[in-house]
Structure formats: C-alpha cells, structure tokens
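Dear colleague,

As promised, here are the two records you asked about, laid out in our usual form so they can be pasted straight into your sheet.

NAME FIELD: protein one
SEQUENCE, THEN STRUCTURE:
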Amino acid sequence: MKKILLSAVALFATMTVNAQEVGQITTDDLVNRIGLTTDKEEKDGKMQSIKIDVAAGTMFCESANVTMSAAFDDGYSPESAAAPKIDDANYGTIKIGDLTIDATQGVQGNSNPKDEAGANPALASTVPVGPAAVFQFDVKKNGYLYVFHKASSNKNYMVYENKAPMGYIFTMATDGTKALPKVFGYELKGEGEFNYLPEGTAVAWPEKIYLGEEAEDVKVNGLSVIKFPVFEGCSYWVNAGGSKITSCGYYFDETGDATVTIENGVSEAITILDKGQIPGAEPKPVAEPWKIEGAEGAMEYDGSWKGNWWNLNEDMNADISGYDYLWIDYDGFEGAIQFGIFYSEWQKTESWGEVWYTDQVDLTDAAGVVGIKIEKTKIIETGIGGVESEYKGDIYAKHARQVFTQDKGKASKINIKGIYLGSEADFEAAKAGGSAINSVKKAANADDAIYNIAGQKVNASYKGLVIKNGKKYIQK
C-alpha cells in the first residue's frame, strides 16, 4: 500500500542498492505451462493466431520484485513484439546495460479493452472491464517499471495504479521513413503527488501527441517502452486503447535512469530511452538558485526551542522538485542551533496534533556552509518521536512550506549570510567559497501563458496538448 501521510520527527534511511531485474516472456513457457499454442488458423481469408482462454491472474513472467499477469479473463497467443523492420531485419533485442530481453518472444490478448459503457477507456480515462487484453504488474518494492511492447502510433496507451489512471513516459522506435523520426516520445502528465489523470482526460494517439492533432495520420509500428514509478504493494495495469497490446516483458529498477537500446543485428542500434528520459528531448530546465527572501542577518535565541521560520511562498506550498540541496551560509555562531526545512505534507496524530514532515541538521562549526540534500525518496523507519507508527514508507520531498533555524534548548546566536536552494554544483561552489547567489525567486511564475506544441499562444478553451511554464499537459 502506498504511504501518503508523513511524520515530522523520524529516522530515515535512503535506498543505496539499486535492484535491476527483467521479466522475460518466453514462448516455451506460454505453451508448456499455460497451454497456449503457436498454431494458426484461416479466418476471413488470412492465417491468424489461435487464441486460448486464459484466466485473470495467470502469470506470464516474474522476477524478484515484480509479477506480470493477465488482469482479466481473455484469449491469448504467443506473438512477437519485434519491430520496426530496417534493412530487412526486425529490431528484436532489447538491452539495458548487461541485461537483455528477447522481443521476438511475447504474448498478445484477444479483446480490445472497453469500459462499463463499452467505450475505449483512453477517450475519457475510464477504467477497463473484462474480458480485455490488459497486463497487470504486482510490485513488491518501490522503484520504476519499464514495460516493453509493440506499439502502433495510432493507438492510445493507458497505465493505471490500483485502477487510477496515471501519467507515464512513452517512447517508440520507427523505421524513420514517414513523418515520425526514428525515435519519438512524450511525457503524459497527470496531477498531484502521484501523477493521476483528472477524470475525463482524453489520451490521444502517440503520433497526435507528438505531431499535433491536425497532422495527417502516420500509422506506424515499432518497439516501445512505457516507464512509470511503482510502489510496494500496488497493482498496475497497462493496456492499449482500440487494440490488443503485445508485450515481451519488463525491466525494473530503483533509480529510473536506465538507458535502453534495441538492436536487429544488422543496422545501427537505436536508443529508445536515454538515462530514463526521451532521447533527443530538450534537457529539463535546471532551476535557478533560490536565495530565501528575508533569511539573513543576526539572530538571537533564548533557549526555549524557538527560532525563525521563513515561508517559501504565500500559500506555503512551494515546488522544490528542481532543487538538490538546501544550505545555510553563516558565521558568528554560538550555542546550539538546528537548521532545516518543513515539507508540505503532514499528518494528524492524537497526541501530537498536526505534525509536519521535516528534514534538519545540527550546526556545530563556528562558521561555514552546511547543506541538506533534498532526497526525492526517503523511507520512514519509525513514527512520531521514535514511536512506532503506521505511517511507514516513502517520502516524496517535492513541495515545502518553510525553512527554519531554532535553538535546541540553549541560548544561542547566529549571523545568517543567506539560506539557499540550488543544484549540487551550486552547493559545492558555495562550500568552496564561490560567488554569492543574490537572486530572489518569486513566489509566482513570471509567465502563466499557455501554448500549443507549435508554440502558438492559446487560451483555456483550447483542447489537446499544451505547454505551460515549461511543462506539457493534456488540456480537456
């Protein structure tokens, strides 16, 4: 079960070992264990695969931390996911570091997914019902899942977490002979902490998301990867809209930064994922260093566990996802002082009231630069005040309320030169005595304008993929 509520006074342990594992579907296993067949039969003048009924929950492949199975009752047959074909050879080998997946060995369902109303679930982000070709992934550890499949640029793709539709990264290889490049992709963004798609969101074809709704249809096939974060105890569904998805397996890691290449033994290898991101995409903008407004000057504390708190913005919910470190530059220190940050998440407890999750460090030197790494993932080992709590699990340090300094029950004083948020390079430069950061981040974004993917300014009534403050969204 994903943990949402966060404790304020807790011990943390960050993940240091990156589990890396693959789940490979094999034709022999599908035939010998599940009872599928590679035989074909003539239907409507064409030789087609024979689908064999498979019960919901039937496992297709598994690894230490992930099990891939059928989400619903449906007919299945062994099928290859290898594509595109270049130089008369299909791309059928997937490589992630030293790990390999054979894309020629896959499985395909029989029934296009539909919701309770009989519609394609991708048209309004509804939930599919069976029978349907939907793959389920049950996860035992937090990390990232990369699902490999044969994609069509003119089909929609959906991911669900415990039946909640969510965003993901999609990339796909093509033969490069039509309007689409050899590799293209998009990031489907949801809302909130867990990237869920708002009710009614229409998910377009990949080619329309990339080229725009007005572009002529391209309709090409190729190997694809869908990547998304996963959490211990949760179940995930992956399916195509208006089609039967064909998958050869998956890759799982804890860092989300895998580079994935595909090969056909003849042509050049194609990179379909570069360090966890879409190849060729513009690098994510690096956040400018942020000097916290008002957090400077001489401070004196009387030893009553009180101090100073500086709000990061007016609504006390500032986005800090682009920053790696919080640090304080100080001198004139005496006594015992704690420096830290309050995140936006909180929990209500019977004995402590409202308790906010924090990260803090004790200052010990007379002067210097002391930092706190803004970990994107933490693990609560204990609960409030070291007492066992039901709220164990991952912490997501993406939004924060305030930064603070306070005494630790001892009369103290400090002269604060500045408190900053920035990149690791900014922090290292500050420790080395680099140039001061004088810019002050504004609470609101300077430009709230909305643009379509062609760069044209649009308004709130525009439907489709839009860009706002450097991020892409599906506007309905």
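NAME FIELD: protein two
SEQUENCE, THEN STRUCTURE:
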Amino acid sequence: MHSIEIPEAALKLFIPENLAECERDQYLDMCALLYQVATGSISFEQMKVQAVYRLLNIVPGRKHDDTFDDMDEHQKWDNVTQLSILVDSFFTDDNGQKVIRQDYTHNPVPKIRPLLKNYFGPADSFTNVTFGEYNDGLRLFLEYSTTGEYEKLYLLAAIFYRPKKKWLWLERKKVDYNGDVREQYNANSIASRAAKIKQYHPGFAYGFYLLFASFQKCLTQAVIPWGNRELDLSILFDADAAGESDDEAVPGIGMDSLAYAIAESGEFGTIEDVRNTNLWEVLIRLYDLKKKDLDYKQNEKDNAIN
C-alpha cells in the first residue's frame, strides 16, 4: 500500500499498489478503467489519472472535495498528476509492454446484486468450485482471450455467480455440507444469469476475468503446499512436460481428456460425477495420475538408454 503525505493540506493518503490490495469498489473501478485501456477507449496515461480519482474517491470538478478541500483546482490537478505515477505499480514491464500484475487468488467481489437479485461468487482460491464449473469457465476464458468478445465475459461470470440455495439452512445442518452457499451449478441456466449480470457494474465482468486469469496463473506456475508435500500443478498444463504437441496441449481440451480418464478409472464415478466433484480434489488426483505417467515414461527412456 502506498502511503502519501501532502503537508500543505495536512493529508495522509493511501493508494493500493496493485489489484490485490484494492477494496471491492476500488477493484471494480480499476477493472473498468483497465478494460478501457485494453480496448483503446482511453490512453494508459489517462487511465492513471482517472485511477487516482477513483482510488481516492475524488470527484473531478467538485468545488468542495473532502480530500483536497483547501486547494485550488491547479493545486489539485498538480497533486493528482504526481500521484498518478504510483499507478505504475499495478503493472510489470515485459519488453516495454505494460502487463497487469496478477498475483492474487482471493475474490475481491464475493457478492453482487444486479436487478435486485443477489448472486454469490466463488470463495477465495476457488475452494468451493466444482471441476465442471472450472472446466466450463476455462473454455470461455480461452475463447475470450482468443476472440475478445465481451459477451463471453458475462457468460464466464454467470458460471460462478449464482443465487443462494433455497434450503440453505437445512444444507448447513448436514454432516457433508461443503460451505458453499450457492445453488448447484447448472450449465443450462448460464445465459439467463448472464443477461442480468450484464446490468451490473461495468468493471465487474472484466474484473472477474482478471481474477480467473490470476487463479489460472497460480495453477500453472505455482508450487502449492498440500498436506506434507508440495505439488507442482504446472505438469497438468505444460506441453513440454507432458510430451504433447501445442495443439494437444490446449488447456480446455486437456482438462476434458483428463476428466474422462478419471471417469474411466471409476474413482469418482461417471463423467458427470467427476464434474460435480470439488475442483481441488480432482486436480490432486489428476496430478497423481500425471506424475505417475511422467515417471513411467522417464523410466522407460532411462532403460532404453541403458
């Protein structure tokens, strides 16, 4: 968190260093601005200035502003311009290209209320998500990344944001209650929910896309502690580690084939049972299967050399 002091106004202000530090409203406003930059609606420098206003809750042109109340417009603009430099910390530099820092897996917007209807999103680190939700979401995530069709983002959010269970109070009394307040995932209800989500904050859909991207980055790059061991889940997504061609390594297709492999083993039941199983349970099992397969192939290669 950036801490800024403005002596002439006797002010001490705080600006988030990245999306991970944003509060709910800050996150939504920033994501709206980031989407505008991504689509070329505003320039990068314009976004930085507008971000300062949003992050500090300053209303441009308002004569009496709680933040810079004792300053004239020239002083106010000068301070905002200087503070805009701090927004650079939201990005990393990749060969001259500004890339959004995505190193968070907590959900900044756990609940939304479009058209007076509450929808609840995934828990932090997607701990209450089923494999079916994730797999369908991954497919839409990849489609948007390829086509840039914004409608895909509403559908993506609609997969994960759902109404509360009708008989939640009874569910909570069950021994096997998993803590998920959302109604069971049904792929057939996505479109109608997406139409309602479309009426919500303009930064929400893109914001959830960025959260999903950050979570996906965690899965494909991070080493995750699990029990008394560490799991490198990148082997589920890495074409080189899996010995696959680029075409075979498309994550959405790969997840489908791995899911069918588990279903064939009968460990979780049918393919529909696999889809209804908690994402992390399936990922851990997929990791074990993949690791054994890679170890077997390595042993065969070593024996062939010897």
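A couple of things worth noting about protein two: The first strand starts at residue 2 and ends at 6. The chain has twelve helices and eight strands.

Best,
R.
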